[in-house]
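Margin note: ligand = 16G.
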Amino acid sequence: MQLDLAAVRVAAAAFPKPEAFKPSYGTAGFRAEASLLPSTVFRCGMLIGLKARSCGQACGVMVTASHNPEQDNGLKLVEASGEMLEPAWEAHATQLAQADTAEQLLQVLAALAATLQPADTPGRVIIGRDTRSSGADLAAACSAGVAAVGGKVSDIGVVTTPELHFTVQTFNQYQALEEQAYFTNLLESFRTLTAGSHAPQQPLHVDCANGVGALKLQQLVPQLQQLGLQLQLYNAGQGRLNHGCGADYVQKEQCFPAGMGDLPAGACCASIDGDADRVVFFTKGQDGSFVLLDGDKIAALAAVYLRRLLSHAPPGTADSISTGVVQTAYANGASTRFITEQLGLQVRCTNTGVKYLHHEAKAFDVGIYFESNGHGTVLLKPSLLQRLQDMDENMSVMQLLAVSRLMNQAVGDAISGLLLCDAVLRSGTSLAEWQALYTDLPSRQLKLVVADRTVITTTDAERRCVTPAGLQDAIDAAVAKYDLGRAFARPSGTEDAVRVYAEAGSQEAADALAREVAGIVFDRCGGVGSRP
Ligand code: 16G
Ligand code: MG
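Resulting structure:
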């Protein structure tokens, strides 16, 4: 592909890279303090502009730092399929973002362009952003990058991350950009799923993290009310983004978000994150305690429901359909046991990060994936959808088709997840029954800083360390001392830290095992600061 490199040089000069800044594409894209990012988003605009021109379709960019604080920002790049950027291109993104001089930048760009052919159709880049105050300027910098390589831009303004993924996916199918298509799809599929079931007596209380999810849910409140779902929104924009609220806070701190501690016992509550791509549920126990229903519990509920729908489909359907659940090493051992032993479904484990789970889930006819932190969705294979469409109009078949429309097929979507869980709760499984599907093994997560976290490499879906030599043996020896013990250490893909997870038969044991493993990592990997 030919580029006007002189014009690129002029355009790039308006977005200089801060000298010591060395951004790299993490698990889900770039993330940093917003003032550092104009060069990164401009360059990623060029990258995704080239991709769109070479495939002749729409690709996407989402300007967001998800659950990070308001002063941060970042970006997630989206393929024409609506899915996350393919891993081979992540390296190109890092190379472009890190180029120190104009010469280096042009060289990397020209080398990439030389491998690509322009398609016959022009392609375009759809850009969205969350509610961060830095978002508009960064989206403009990204547009300038797309334009610099001759690409076309559609800026769709403030949207949730999954909405941007959905828009890219559906634009390439139907050429429609209107937001209403996203809402209508959610509402109509939810209507089908809940038709004939009792409307809940209780409202669903949703913590919106003071983020973009609040804006979108507010728009849905009246129509959802007509469908029998009463939404009460909290942290809907009056406070600071992700501050003392949001799915990340609630799941990690295991406590009520701001403004929701006074709700009565048994209230059905959920929390979404700053860009609305993850959701966890919670409630208050009779003793006032905080009770979390995390991504593992959502996966279990979805698995129970889909298994039920499949069993009511025309005879023989269920037997010929592969259903599986994809988890990560963080999945509570009790959830894995429940899904395999009680439900008889396959479970696969992948590395942390939606792109890995999503890829693995596509191998099943019905692939359910959720990370414990609430990222996830349910995928139905196109060939299965075709078979279902050809079947008689059985209620379960209609509902299976509705699940495939409600659940974002490109990426995890907090709003889809909220609505799916509500639909299942209405179909006869109470909140208490959901909670009681299995009892989590006590667990503990810790994080520590080491001199260079890349000395730790892992295998077996991050459950075992390969290097440094001897680390895994020491972890194994520690785990062996604890009843029902399991533990692992992995370098974070989003920050300069090592994460440790442990579970065991009691909370004291899980805490002790996590501390012990963190101590082992500290000693063998050059721990920084005080020993855990
Ligand atoms: C990113 C991932 C999330 C993962 C987390 C792990 C996406 C959209 N997001 O936020 O799935 O759980 O990273 O972070 O893929 P860590 O590597 O720092 O533990
Ligand atoms: Mg997020």
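The radius of gyration is 23 Å.
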